[in-house]
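User: Could you write out the 3D structure of this protein bound to MTE? I've included everything you need below.
Assistant: Certainly. Input first, then the structure.
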Amino acid sequence: MTDTLSPHSHDPNPEPPSYDTSLQLLLPDGHVHHLSVADLGAFPQIEIVNCYIISTGHGTSGPFVFGGVALQTIMEALAQSWSQAEVISGDGFGTRVYAPELAEGSERPILLALTKDGVALTRQDGLVRLIVPSETDDALRQVKWIERINLLA
Ligand SMILES: Nc1nc2c(c(=O)[nH]1)N[C@H]1C(S)=C(S)[C@@H](COP(=O)(O)O)O[C@H]1N2
Ligand SMILES: [Mo]
């Protein structure tokens, strides 16, 4: 069976699936947090410099400074026990994040990005966008238009 959260190659969708920028965080116990851009902006913000969106198929863009809230910050505030997060966009794209990836204490942590080069991301740009700085291969983890994050125990 094909794992749609681990695509091998993909032509990026240029158009947002909707104009609703809020996302749902589904906890393993079934509880749902609805998070707007303003909600995410109320958490401590960080910036990560020298980010690239890299694709052999359709070029490389950057360097960008992406800003927003570290995924780890959200998890510490709202989730207790989880092992895997399915980060899924409104156009059905997605990736998996494993808890140890956040626990590593990286200087370039996985981010729920709200800004690019100091300016608010537009919906067209991918708001809210997952930025995985360690992924420098094919941009398959740089998920635009996050619709929901499903946490698995
Ligand atoms: N939601 C969503 N995110 C996505 C994609 C997509 O089709 N949908 N394509 C991925 C791929 S294959 C690439 S190359 C980059 C393109 O990012 P850009 O539009 O900022 O250049 O987004 C990634 N994130
Ligand atoms: Mo891509």
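DSSP finds three helices and ten strands in the chain.
User: Perfect, thank you.
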